[in-house]
Amino acid sequence: MSGTYRTWPRIVLVLALCLEAGCAFSHEAREKRHLERAHSYFDKGKYREATIEYENVIQMDSKSSEGHFGLAQCLLKFSDFPHAFQELLSAVENDPSNWKAQLTLGNLLLAGHHNAEAHERALTILKGEPSNVEAQTLLAASDAAGGNLPQSIAEAGVALQMDPDRSASYVLMAELKEKDKDLPAAEQNYGKAVSLDPKSVSTLLSFGAFYARQHRWIDAQKQLEAAITVAPQDPMPRAALARLYLDQGQKDMAEQVLRDASSTITDNSAGYRMLGEFFVAQGQLDKAAEEFATQHSRHPKDVAVTKMYIDVLLLQNHLDQAATLTDALLKNSPSDAEALTDRGDILTRQGKAGDAIPVLEAAVKSAPNSPVAHYHLGVAYAANANLGQAQTEWQEAVRLRPGMAEPQRALATLASRKGDMAMLVASSEQLIQIEPHSSEGYIFHARALLLKGDRAGAEADLKKAMEVAPRDSTVYSRMGDLRVFEKQFDDAAKFYSQALALNPAAADALAGLVNIDLKNNQPGQALQRVQAQIARVPQSSALYLLLGQVELRNKDAAKAIEAFQKATDLDRNNVMAFMFLANTEASRGSVDQAIANYQQAIQQNPKDARLYVFLGSLFEARGDWQQAEDQYQQALQVQPDYPVAANNLAYQMLEHGGNVNVALSLAQTARRGLPDLPNSADTLGWAYYYQGAFSSAISTLQEAVSANPQNATYHYHLGMAYEKANNYAMAKKELEDTLQISPNYSHADEIRKVLSGTPVTN
To answer: CA quadruple 335, 337, 342, 345: dihedral positive or negative?
Structure first.
């Protein structure tokens, strides 16, 4: 019995050790199973499944070098280079002798132009594995990238000595010899590489590219055709052969190669998309649409094909067809950022910017790092008259992708409208860098310099624009504007005429010539000039708008109205034509007709705040102040910071017993937006008056009077503010000035009471 007791603790200890060993064995076994499954998935090309298994390994053992390396390899397959780089660092930190990870990291560093660091990785591997030929190749390649060609050639020679039967080493030596301008040696090494591995597609492509660079077209063609024979389902050789034909100007041959690819490569989306992409690159959108329609019918579940088809339809402005395909994508994948972006773009183009905004906001939420989504959201905001939000989105787009031209162009256009010189300079300089062979960046930059007073710099920019785009009429129009600014009217006329010769519909160039005619007191010549141009371009709304303006200058209001009406008939979105039409009718006493025209214009252009303001002004002139207020409020709903609407609404509220605090806030908004306009100073000063802040009222109203000393209302308001501040001498002066400027002023009786010493209550 006692023996049994003595034995028991030993048994307990043994059991405990066994349990510990069992747990350890279970943990190690599970990790091993995850690793085996990961390797198996990777070998079968199932990289997402492999990723999950490698992550399981790392979760069980955060120091597993093999797990981190495997995950890095998966991430490289998805082109997620930043995260792959971090995983490779973890792999080599946990096991510096993981030479495969070290080598992959070195090659990644070399691809990122970190030549010195790649060189050090190669040396580290060779120190541990002196016979590692891949590391020796990395060493040679990193020295070549660093500019040490002789050393690189010597190191490549060592790689060949290590393994004389390794094809890739001969390819590297061939590339180095070509850099060294030893073309016979380069050709010999390429030939040796192909003889060692005649089924290596990459080697055949490299050899073909070498011949192409030497313009040895037949030799290049043979190598590329051999690559196609080796790998008939690989898109790369066929794409290379098509490029070879394009380099020789043989577009028909290139197209035929890609047609063969389209029908032969049936399981690789990149392969059967190539023909459609070729048509897009060639600007043959009808052929591209036809090809992508065919591929979409053959591969209805291929999202890449569907998206390319949608892109082509959008380029053709076939919005309804594009919308049908986009909706089908979103039905299967509601959070697809690209599909959401396309849907939002379609809605914006259909004039439904309000509906587009939430769709594009969802796209940005789904893909916050998508510059395309941010750009289109900005376009929708701008179409909805929210320029502040538009600017924010465009700036985010360029932050994410500085080389994207569209948001830079949008920012430059916005800056030009706002007069924001700093933003205009920055955006135009970026545009020039992105698109050096386009005229737009130079034109924007010229405008910025001209506004800063640098005429010589502006001219240099415009000359550069002419150099890169000699057929762009806009450049000649802007050069004409510059010459007008310099009062060189004869030269200006020559540039405007050149613009019209290039583009008969260039209304800005025609306007420049017309203004010169009018300056020379030749209204008849101006009229004949516009009529002659309309005969050449009879469907131009912009030219009829100009005709109406010339008719007004010639004091023929009836013909002006006829021209403005024609302009609106041709383009229901020509807001300026509607405005001129309505204002001309109002000036002739046809206020009801003018109001009707503004209402019609608003139906066509409901997001243009100017229309509501002008309509409100007509109601105000007619004495219908309630209708006027309604229109100003509508304008502010469209564009909350629109200063003219804020100013007019504030004044109406002050004059007709509205909320003084709200009126003051509106007046402050107007003053911020129109800091140099005396009218905004007057409205703000009058709001201070009603607030009882007479000192602020006086200083602000003094600005209005100083800017426009002949405005009776400004003197009246300032006089009343002085009266409330008990400065009767100054009040008397300002009120007397009011009556001197306008003896029948609307508040004349009130002014006389004040001057007689009778108190007045407001």
So the answer is: positive
Residue 419 has pLDDT above 60, yes or no: yes
**Which are the contacts of 648, defined by CB distance < 8 A and separation ≥ 6?**
613, 616, 617, 620, 628, 632
State residue 79's pLDDT score.
80
| Residue-level pLDDT at 333 | 94
Distance CA 574, CA 295 (A): 41
Whole-angstrom Cα distance, residue 312 to residue 609?
34
**Distance between CA atoms of residues 668 and 686, nearest Å:** 11
pLDDT for the residue 470: 94
Q: What does the alpha-carbon distance between residue 599 and residue 213 come to, in Å, rounded to a whole number?
A: 65
Cα separation, 457 vs 593, whole angstroms: 48
Contacts with 82 (C-beta within 8 Å, 6 or more apart), sequence order? none
pLDDT category of residue 26 using cuts at 50, 70 and 90: low
Torsion of CA 306, 311, 312, 315, to 10 degrees: 160
Residues 719-733 as b or e (16 or more Cβ within 10 Å = b): bbbbbbeebeeebee
Q: How far apart are CA 309 and CA 290, in angstroms?
A: 9
Task: Write the CB contacts of 4 (distance below 8 Å, at least 6 apart in sequence).
Answer: none
Residue 81: its pLDDT value, please? 86
**Exposure pattern of 328-363 as b/e (b: 16+ CB <10 Å)?**
ebbeeeeebbbbbbbbbbbbbbeebbeebbebbbbb
Q: Tally the C-alpha atoms within 13 A of residue 439's C-alpha that lie toward its C-beta.
A: 18
**In angstroms, rounded to a whole number, what is the distance separating the alpha carbons of residues 129 and 96?**
12
- Asked if 162 and 136 touch (Cβ cutoff 8 Å), the reply is yes
Tokens of 684: 């703000």
Per-position DSSP letters for 651-694, written without gaps between them: HHHHHTT--HHHHHHHHHHHHHH-TT-HHHHHHHHHHHHHHT-H
Distance, in Å, from the CA atom of 664 to the CA atom of 646, rounded to the nearest integer, reads 10
H or E segment to which residue 633 belongs: helix 625-638
Nearest of 723, 647, 725, 642 to residue 683 by alpha carbon:
647
Residue 391 tokens read as 């600017």
Which residues touch 595 (CB under 8 Å, ≥6 apart)? 582, 615, 618, 619
Structural tokens at position 81: 């280079």
Q: Give the whole-angstrom CA distance, residue 161 versus residue 143.
A: 18
Tokens of 583: 């204002």
Q: What is the pLDDT of residues 660-714, one digit of tens each?
A: 999 999 999 999 988 889 999 999 999 999 999 999 999 999 999 999 999 999 9
Identity at 119, one-letter amino acid code:
H
Max alpha carbon distance in the chain (Å)? 134
User: Within 13 Å and on the Cβ side, how many CA atoms surround 619?
Assistant: 21
- Whole-angstrom CA distances from 100 to 103, 135, 585, 664 are 5, 10, 82, 72
The 10s digit of each residue's pLDDT in 163-203 is 999 999 999 999 999 999 999 999 999 999 999 999 999 99
Integer Cα distance of 600 and 614 in angstroms:
13
Distance between CA atoms of residues 528 and 547, nearest Å: 10
Q: Tell me: the pLDDT tens digits for 517-545? A: 999 999 999 999 999 999 999 999 999 99
What the chain holds in terms of domains, given with CATH numbers, is 641-762 (1.25.40.10)
What φ, ψ does residue 757 adopt, rounded to 5°? 95, 5
- The answer to whether 718 touches 725, Cβ cutoff 8 Å, is no
Quick: pLDDT tens for 241-291: 999 999 999 999 999 999 999 989 988 898 999 999 999 999 999 999 999
Do 432 and 442 form a contact (C-beta atoms < 8 A)? yes
Locate 479 and state its tokens.
């050069």
Q: List the one residue out of 436, 515, 518, 450 whose CA is nearest residue 478.
A: 450
CB 493 within 8 A of CB 516: yes
Distance, CA of 208 to CA of 217 (rounded, Å): 9
* Cα dist from 8 to 50, 227, 237, whole Å: 48, 75, 75
